[in-house]
Amino acid sequence: PSEDMITLMWSFIVSIYSIGGLLGSSSTGYLAVRFGRKKSMLLANIPALLSAALMALSRLSGSFEMIIAGRFSAGLCAGIHLGTHVQYAGEISPKKLRGFINVTSSVFFALGKTVARILGLRELLGSQSLWPMLMASCGFPALFQLVMLPFFPESPPYLLMQKEDQEGCKKAIRQLWGEGHHQAEIDDIMKEKATMKNTKILSVLELLKEPAFRWQLYMTIILTATVQLCGINAV
Questions:
Q1: CA-wise closest residue to 82 among 14, 25, 160
Q2: Is 126 exposed, middle or buried, given 0-12, 13-18 or 19+ CB atoms closer than 10 A?
Q3: Those residues with Cβ within 8 angstroms of residue 158's Cβ, 6 or more apart along the chain or in another chain
Q4: What pLDDT is attached to residue 233?
Q5: Sign of dihedral through CA atoms 5, 10, 14, 16?
Q6: CA–CA separation, 180 vs 131, rounded Å?
């Protein structure tokens, strides 16, 4: 192919990740309610492992289409995890540590990018012979989570609010926070459940049309847009 066609193909390979991320994050709400936070994260590891396999074998197969499919699958996994991980981490943590635990997602997000940049150096995995291994490295954290996450309980609020499993909720709380009197936490979840019964869940279109959320929406859009101007993409 010509140089222009190579540039076009590579641009598509880079950008397809965001399309996968958009689809993954759009399905997060449904998956988190339908399967639970824990199972949603376990399911999200399947496209990550598929992505790793496709990109690892792309050079051997001589197929750039496999890289495109792999990048799309990786984006799908990232989109699902971005929503469910923060939700799960916040719900399983004690109230006094909830803010701190939620912030750690941003810290590890940045740490993951840093490790990827280092591994991408030509002296490490960014060489002509090892780049398929670099692109397949997303499979290692997915595999680690797939092995370790089954040992963790489901989110207590999910068990109580969506499944109405009070015993399962108490068991999960004891497993997470140890033995003790946790009735106050259960009461808080019950209050939240009662509040949500009177709260209408809005679709994206309804959210855009709702005047009460207009300023919050403006603020979110402005913050998200200005992040792209801070220089992180150039770095």
A1: 25
A2: middle
A3: 32, 36, 37, 91
A4: 64
A5: positive
A6: 51
| Assigned CATH class of 1-154 | mainly alpha
Residue type present at position 114? T
Burial 61-99 (b: 16+ CB within 10 A, else e): eeebebbbbbbbbbbbbbbbbbbbbbbbbbbbbeeeeee
Tokens of 184: 């106050």
| Contact status, residue 75 vs residue 19, Cβ threshold 8 Å | yes
Q: With pLDDT > 70 as the criterion, what percentage of the chain qualifies?
A: 94
* Contact criterion met (CB below 8 Å) for 165 and 61: no
Q: Is the pLDDT of residue 223 over 90?
A: no
pTM higher than the cut 0.85: no
Token readout for 165 is: 């499993």
